[in-house]
Each structure stands twice: as C-alpha cells, then as structure tokens.
C-alpha cells in the first residue's frame, strides 16, 4: 500500500448525523454523496483536508448500526471499525438536535476502549435547538463536546483548537518529509529534461512515473469491488451478494509490483457504482451514484469495463464503453468470474466479435479474462493498462508524422467529388491524452466520413497508437483575400 504523507483522522458516528457533510466541509469539495436518508455512505472515502492551515487525511465512514455481522449493515460496521486501525485521531460525531441515543453511547464505549484520541463533535448545533444536546455530550465522558454546523461551516475554529494538539506535531514532521521527497523528485525530473534537451528530444508534460488513474466500471454485481480488494490484498471495499452495494466512487492510491521486473508502479484505483440502464435508474441515490461514476471516468486515464462472465456482453456494456470512448479515455475490457465461466473459448470469441461489431469506431479494444476471486489475469490487466496509457500519452515527432501523412495520401488519395480535388496539405499533432491532430487543406467540408475513418485507423496502425481514441480536426486554410 501507498505510504501516507499526512496524519489520518477518521470520522465516526451513527447514520445521518452529518459525517459526510463534515467530510466534504473539511476537504473543501463535495466528494462524498450526501442525502437526507440515512445509510448513504457505505465504503470508506479518503480525502486531503485542511483546517485553518492544519493539513491531514480525512476518512468518511459508514454509519454505525447495531446489526447482524453477516448483514449488509453489519459488514458496513466492520469496515468502519477497521478504519480506525493506524489512524491518528477520530472525530466522533453525534446529532446535537436529536441528542444522545443508546447507539451513540455504544459507539462511545467502543471508542474509549481504543488507543486513538477522540474529539467529540456535536453537529447540527446552529441556533438554540442544539443547546441541550451539547450539554448531554458531557455524559459520554469524552471531554467537552465541540459544537459545529458542518452544513453552514460554523464552529470550525473550535474544531481546530480541539484537533490541533493531537496531530499538529505529526503533520509538521510528515510535511517536512514530503517536501524533501518532492525536492528529490524535482531534481530527477530536471536531470531527465536536461538529458533529453541534449539529445534534441522534447519531453511531454506527462510524467510516466505519475500514478496511473485506473477506473473500474461496469454493471451492478460484475465484481468491481471484489476485484479491487483482490488487487489490494485486503477487504478495503464492502462486497456481498447484494447488487448495487457501492455508491460513492472510491479512489485508492496503491503501489503495484510488476512481476517480471519487480518495479514498483504507482496506481490510483477508482471503484465506481454499478451502472444500470437509464430507464431502470429511478432512485435519487442511484442517480447520484451513477453521476459520480461518470465523473470518475472523466478523471481517469485508463478505464476497465468489467463484464460478468456468467451474463456475457449486454447492450448496457456497449453503452458504457461508448461513453468512455466519447470522453476520450483509454478503454480495456475484462471478463470477470472466469473461474466459474462455462465454454470459455466460445464466450471469449463471442465477446470479441460483439465488441468489434458494437464498437466499430475503435476496433481491437484489449480484451482479457480475469477472476477477482482467484487473481487470474490481474497482473496482465495492469500491465496492459500501463501500455494503454503510454499510447494514449504518445506524441509523434514532426518528421515521423509527415512521413506517415505523405504515405497515407499516396496509398489512398482523397476523393474528388464533382471532379474537384480535395487537397490535404499538412498535419500537426496538437495534443495528447487522447492524441489529437489537426489536418489543414481545402474543400474539407466535402471530405467523406469514410476517408476520415481511414486516416484515424491508419494513424492507430502505422504510428503505434493501438486501440486508443484518436481525434482528428479538419481545418481549411484562411483565404488571404477574404
């Protein structure tokens, strides 16, 4: 696992006391889904937080519920309890308007048995309605309650005063270590740039050593969270037979050891909620979850679309894949549950053919067979993901691009509709991630879409971009007499 660079502060409390609202307030953005109904949060979500200059890693947790250990709420409770392992402090949140409940007292008893220091937070304390609840908090024997309103941002200074003595010294020490590590990395990048300049090479702004942003998407119950847990080697995400357990998109920084080279590769794994057909998504929370998953695709570099081997490829899978391609992300398909699949050869070939037919604009998308239970194919999947990112980030030299352009036009000249030639004069690459090119010429409005597809496919094949989205823009040269 990735080493932490900030002290960790875990937010704990029963459902609907405002833990996610407080988390969003501390991290300064709406990372966690928030709704009036209880039990929205299910998996731990982490984010870099700031409190009047005090920096730390905040951890949002599922609401504490007293249920059977094998039930979904019971498994959520186990995840919450595990979150305290290795934490530097905890924020125990209760609802000042409702006052203390037996469940609050149970949580307090458990926290007193732990070695982690606790700050007691009386949330929803704005106005006079929370005064009696604030006083009640003293009975928990956890010191003076800190009255706050996470929704309105009140009480933040008091929260800083209570939390700072617990983590400020460690935060300062970890900050010094992080700055030293950043300075070493900056020296490495500077040396690489100087060496490249001496060779006449222009480096891309993208750092190949940066973490790979890898999102796992798919329909509900395809095994996305189970796959992430298998990669991490721990039960980091909540799983179970129920469909739609995951609601938030959860990002986890992780170091993967490449089996062949033994090299440590940094990855940011992003687990997302299952995406059903739009017509079936009627619940407000599910709509929020799907929207959160689509935002995760926007910020990913490579997206793994996970299929269920027991169900094969469905129309909804193709819709998700098309959405990924439209956003310009590098896409790969993994067929999960391979350990229980039947007639695997026919299944694989059938999915391959259906993909080539359904994703005609991007043929040859990588297809792998994996098992989140046994670990089959997971290393190959990660290795292929890094290769995809490299192609997605590639910039072609000007000379190489011109050679390809001349060859492509000679092999298949542009058509001449109505007897008037379409002239393609030159091409330039204007961006990467995804690769983007502009072609200049005349009468480009008459260029058939089929010829544009020919150019895109030729770029992928001849310039080694593989199955990544390639964008071509046609631009007519300006008439100097206009």
Automatic annotation (TrEMBL):
EngA-type G domain location: 7-171, 212-393
Name this protein carries in UniProt: GTPase Der
Keyword field: GTP-binding, Nucleotide-binding, Repeat, Ribosome biogenesis
Gene Ontology BP annotations: ribosome biogenesis
Keyword flag Nucleus: no
Secretion signal, residue range per the UniProt entry: none
Pfam families (UniProt xref): KH_dom-like (PF14714), MMR_HSR1 (PF01926)
Assembly description: Associates with the 50S ribosomal subunit.
Coiled-coil region list: none
PROSITE patterns reported for this sequence: G_ENGA (PS51712)
Single annotated GO MF: GTP binding
Positions annotated to bind GTP 2: 218-225, 271-275, 336-339
SUPFAM superfamilies reported for this sequence: P-loop containing nucleoside triphosphate hydrolases
Organism: Aurantiacibacter xanthus
């Amino acid at each position: 696992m990735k080493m932490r660079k900030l002290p960790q502060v875990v937010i704990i409390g029963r459902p609907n006391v405002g833990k996610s609202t407080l988390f969003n307030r501390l991290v300064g953005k709406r990372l966690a889904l928030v709704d009036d109904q209880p039990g929205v949060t299910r998996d731990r979500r982490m984010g870099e937080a700031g409190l009047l200059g005090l920096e730390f890693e905040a951890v949002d947790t599922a609401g504490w519920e007293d249920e059977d250990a094998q039930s979904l709420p019971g498994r959520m409770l186990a995840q919450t309890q595990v979150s305290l392992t290795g934490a530097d402090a905890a924020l125990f949140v209760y609802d000042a308007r409702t006052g203390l409940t037996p469940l609050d007292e149970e949580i307090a008893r458990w926290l007193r048995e732990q070695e982690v220091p606790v700050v007691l937070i009386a949330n929803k304390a704005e106005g006079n309605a929370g005064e009696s609840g604030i006083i009640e908090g003293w009975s928990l024997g956890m010191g003076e309650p800190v009255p706050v309103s996470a929704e309105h941002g009140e009480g933040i200074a008091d929260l800083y005063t209570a939390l700072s003595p617990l983590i400020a010294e460690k935060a300062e020490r970890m900050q010094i270590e992080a700055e030293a590590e950043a300075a070493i990395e900056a020296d490495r990048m500077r040396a690489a740039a100087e060496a490249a300049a001496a060779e006449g090479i222009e480096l891309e702004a993208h750092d190949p050593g940066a973490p790979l942003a890898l999102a796992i998407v798919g329909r509900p119950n395809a095994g996305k969270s189970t796959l992430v847990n298998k990669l991490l080697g721990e039960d980091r995400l909540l799983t179970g037979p129920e469909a739609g357990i995951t609601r938030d998109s959860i990002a986890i920084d992780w170091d993967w050891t490449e089996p062949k080279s033994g090299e440590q590769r940094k990855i940011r794994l992003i687990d997302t909620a299952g995406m059903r057909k739009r017509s079936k998504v009627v619940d407000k929370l599910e709509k929020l979850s799907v929207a959160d998953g689509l935002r995760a695709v926007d910020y990913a570099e490579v997206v793994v679309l996970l299929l269920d081997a027991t169900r094969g490829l469905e129309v909804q899978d193709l819709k998700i894949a098309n959405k990924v391609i439209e956003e310009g992300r590098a896409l790969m398909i993994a067929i999960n549950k391979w350990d229980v699949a039947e007639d695997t050869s026919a299944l694989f070939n059938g999915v391959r053919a259906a993909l080539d037919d359904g994703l005609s604009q991007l043929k040859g998308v990588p297809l792998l067979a994996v098992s989140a239970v046994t670990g089959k194919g997971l290393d190959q999947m990660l290795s292929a993901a890094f290769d995809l990112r490299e192609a997605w980030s590639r910039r072609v030299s000007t000379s190489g691009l011109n050679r390809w352009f001349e060859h492509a036009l000679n092999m298949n000249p542009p058509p001449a509709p109505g007897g008037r030639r379409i002239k393609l004069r030159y091409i330039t690459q204007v961006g990467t991630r995804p690769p983007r090119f502009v072609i200049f010429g005349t009468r480009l409005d008459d260029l058939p879409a089929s010829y544009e597809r020919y150019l895109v496919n030729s770029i992928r094949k001849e310039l080694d971009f593989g199955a990544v989205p390639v964008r071509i823009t046609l631009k007519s040269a300006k008439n100097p007499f206009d």
